[in-house]
Amino acid sequence: MALRKGPLLSVQLTANKLQSQVDALLKDVKQPDKREKVYERCILLKKSVDETLETLRKLKKSNELSLVSNYDQRKRNEERRLKGMSDLLQEVARRLNKELTKQKMDETDDKKIKTQATAVKRETVEGDDDEDVEDEESGDGEEFDKQDGVQLFITICDFEAQEENDLAFKKGEVLRILNQKPDGWWLAENAQGEEGLVPKTYLQVHKQSSKSITIEGGDDEEEEEEDDDDDDDDDDDDDDDEDDDYEESEDELEDELQNVKQVPEAPSEKSQLHRIAVKKIVSEINATEGLMSMGNIPEGFRASTLAQLLADGNEFHMSYYLQPKLTQSKLCFKDLHWDRVHGGVRPRKTHITHTFTLWSCRMVPLPGSAVQVLSRQVRFCLFDGQRVLSNIHTIRATWQPKNPKTWTFSPRVTGILPSMVDGDCFVRSNSQSSNIGILFELGVTYFRIATGHQGELSCGWAFLQLFTASGDAVPHRTYEIILNGGTPYEKGLEVDPTVSKRATFFQHLMVSRKQPKLLVKLRSPTRKMRAILNLLPETLVGPNCYIHLLAFYRQLLADALLKDRLNMQKADLICNPVLATFPELLEQTDILDAVRSAWSEKEATLSWSVKRDATFLKNLFVQVYHDTAYPLLRSTTLPANKWVDDEVEISRWKAIANFLQESQEKNGSLYSLLSPEHAYQVFDIAEISYDFLGMGRNTVPLN
């Protein structure tokens, strides 16, 4: 007799089937000829996901046939997964609907052109009276209006166009509705003949909908004047009926608004992530179609997902995650506490604390000759299959001209060597998700010779799961992970399918050697490193060479916010140049490397007994920071930082090296600050003012 499945297990199996259907649907989205059917599938699939989610929320632990370990955690994980699928499908349906609506708009325009051409031919050949022609045209117009369901609506407030196909309008405009969609975005036309999508929650039924509006001009305006004259004669007789109709229309509108979901003004972080994910699947695929159709890039290449997230703002930058977060009550800090025993930041252990070393990437395919590769890099973050859970860090790769398909990295960066090539990194998180892991996205910055366009392509991605299916941590060892094609939201795609397509039956045995792979070694941090990592925020990823600098910054934060503040209920600005400029420093890694190099040289001169004095080390770090980072950040002679610009990077590196040498010879930066050979920006009070309430929300200036 087969064992009966518990309710939670049944929902998990159903969710797995739905997940496979979602993955299959995302593959079909790329084919333009199937998008209309995919839209219908998407609506039905979302309905199934929502029903399953509702069933899951009604489950109780007491309904299980047998004891289920970690029941609440498993239920939360499944609810999060189903909610993510529902949001993803909703965004896919919305974008597909807009794309299909745009196609219908183009077809409608073609139909109008043909109708006008037919009318011109009829007028030329028949040569009938103008009155007959006007009667026929008005009859045709009425038929066209009836077919397309044209109605008159008046706008109740202003609307700014959010996307390309939207139609902006001001309050009080009269719009013709050409097509009413169930998602709440209607196809409308204004008095100037412009068409686009408008939200129906911004519209109100026009009480004089029987009147015509000026669309084509000329003859239509004369017809409108005649209609207005007729209506004016009947206004006195129809006032009562008109008021009744208006009240009925308002009642219908109120009923309709109750069933319509309002457009959110401030979308949540999760919805924004899903919106970006769908953009990579639906919109950004078209950005690489030109290169792919010409055979310049393999089929598995896409526009870089993580690069786009970094470019959208500071939400996925390290500077954002370093700022202390407030609790829900906004009365204290959530992840920054004072240790009264040791006099500093209270250490916080996390569920996930690992270090890893990127060794190499092998057999990574190259773009075609029409694309020039400017740089190769790997971006990584924490990921649960649906959301990015941490900041995103970038590691530059090196390669040899004789073997361009092999990327290598430089572990244990010391001195003034750039930290961008450091392959030794850490990950830290307190997330309880069983699906969490490290997402690696390989990318190239390219320059298209024909058009001069510069962008970043994803050459594949790899995912290192940190927990097994049973919930145990994966062992610390070296992993050889095969790269996947497409975006992290697409499953089952190869980076270069031609490798397996060209292989014969016997060659398939050797194909695995030709598959692109990522070689990474997962480690456990040493006791000393773990103690420093526990001073950092709960969620953070980055290179190991930054750890001690980040720990000093957190100690200074604790002093300023928890120890030295006289009134904990006030949020006044704090005068501290280090706290005010450190987030900006994190965006200019070459200056950060200068601080790291200067600190290493200064620390090497200290005795062992002095190194045990935490207060002395903290004050010494502030002095080193003032002598290196502060002048360089305000220098006007230092070229602006630009990504993958070799000339700028070399000139900045030389200028920084000369500054460090001069400061070392003159025993500080005072000579450089007062020297006429160096120029600096005009002083701004923001350089020394730290706003702990606004720092985490403000965007750090990016160069």
Automatic annotation (TrEMBL):
Keywords, alphabetical: SH3 domain
SUPFAM superfamilies per record: SH3-domain
BP GO terms, sorted: protein localization involved in establishment of planar polarity
One GO cellular component term: cytoplasm
Region described as Disordered: 99-147, 206-272
Start-end of Acidic residues biased regions: 126-145, 217-257
Domain of life: Eukaryota
UniProt xrefs under InterPro entries: NPHP1, NPHP1_SH3, SH3-like_dom_sf, SH3_domain
One Pfam short name: SH3_1
Biased composition (Basic and acidic residues): 99-113
Residue intervals of the SH3 domain: 148-208
Protein name per its UniProtKB record: SH3 domain-containing protein
Species of provenance: Chiloscyllium punctatum (Brownbanded bambooshark)
